[in-house]
Amino acid sequence: MTDAVQIITTLDSEGKAQEIARALVEKRLAACVQMAGPIQSTFRWKGAIETAGEWLCIIKTRAELYDKVEAAIREMHTYETPEIIALPIVAGSAAYLDWLRHETS
Q1: Which runs of consecutive H residues, i.e. helices, occur in the chain?
Q2: CA distances from 38 to 24, 41, 57, 59 (A)
Q3: What are the DSSP calls for 58-75, one per residue?
Q4: Straight-line distance from the first to the last Cα atom of the chain, in angstroms, rounded to the nearest whole number
Q5: C-alpha span between 71 and 45 (Å, rounded)
Q6: What are the angstrom distances between the C-alpha of 28 and each of 47, 55, 56, 69, 98?
Q7: Which CATH number characterizes residue 73's domain?
Q8: 6 in Cβ contact with 56 (< 8 Å)
Q9: 31 close to 60: Cβ distance less than 8 angstroms
Q10: What is the extent of the structural domain holding 81?
Q11: pTM of the model
Q12: What is the C-alpha separation between 30 and 53, in angstroms, rounded?
C-alpha cells in the first residue's frame, strides 16, 4: 500500500475540468490531473433518470491531501452534489510515486 490516491470527479464542461485541474496542480494539491471526455453518464437524480455529457478528471495526489482537494473541488464545482471519490493506489513504480510525492509537497 502506498500513501498515494487517485481522486475522481466529473464536470459538465471541458473548460471547468481544465480550470479545476490547473488550480489543483498550481496549489500543489495534485501532481497530475488527467481529463477524459466527453463521456456519457446515466444516473438517477431527484427521482428521475438523467443522461448527461461530462468530463472525467483523475487526480493523482497523496492521501493526506484528500480533504484539501475535496474542499478545492467543492469551491469550484458547479454541481449540487459532485462526485468526489478517492481510490488508493496500492502499488506503482517507485520513480513515479517519488515524483508524485515531490510535486505535492
Answers
A1: 14-26, 66-76, 94-103
A2: 21, 10, 11, 17
A3: EEEEEGGGHHHHHHHHHH
A4: 20
A5: 23
A6: 38, 22, 20, 10, 14
A7: 3.30.70.120
A8: no
A9: yes
A10: 4-103
A11: 0.95
A12: 25
The pLDDT tens digits of the residues spanning 11-28 come to 999 999 999 999 999 999
Amino acid at 11: L
* DSSP three-state, residue 11: strand
The tally of domains found in the chain comes to: 1
> Is residue 1 predicted with pLDDT exceeding 90?
no
DSSP code of 29?
S
91 C-beta neighbours (distance < 10 Å), count: 10
Please count the CA atoms within 13 angstroms of the CA of 49 that sit on its side-chain side. 1
pLDDT per position as a tens digit, 40-66 = 999 999 999 999 999 999 999 999 999
| Phi and psi torsions of 62, nearest 5° | -95, 145
